[in-house]
Amino acid sequence: MQTASTNICERLCNKSIHDISWLLNIPRSTVSGIITKWKQLGTTATQPPSGRPRHMTERGQGMLKHTVRRSHQLSAESIAKDLQTSCGLQISTTTVCRELHGMGLYG
């Protein structure tokens, strides 16, 4: 597949969106979207993801679930301390509660 800059160059050479689509064998909507993005942003690069990255990884979530299933009577504070000593994962008690609620575990 050709790069977005090729599409822009073709457009600048006064070719129609239909012609560019046919020449590069890609959908017209793709060509149109790239040209629109170029006009609005001056680049065709994608934007970085919005929001803050998650603190716990999937591995950390698995370890949290394993810890809770092993001994389900522990408090969130003791779970956070246990994760810190066993895996070096430093999370707060609020994060522990939030993650457990996200997994469907309450109480």
From TrEMBL:
InterPro entries the record matches: Homeodomain-like_sf (IPR009057), WH-like_DNA-bd_sf (IPR036388)
PANTHER family found in the cross-reference section: PROTEIN CBG27172 (PTHR46068), TRANSPOSASE IS30-LIKE HTH DOMAIN-CONTAINING PROTEIN (PTHR46068:SF1)
What's the protein here called?
Answer: Transposase Tc1-like domain-containing protein
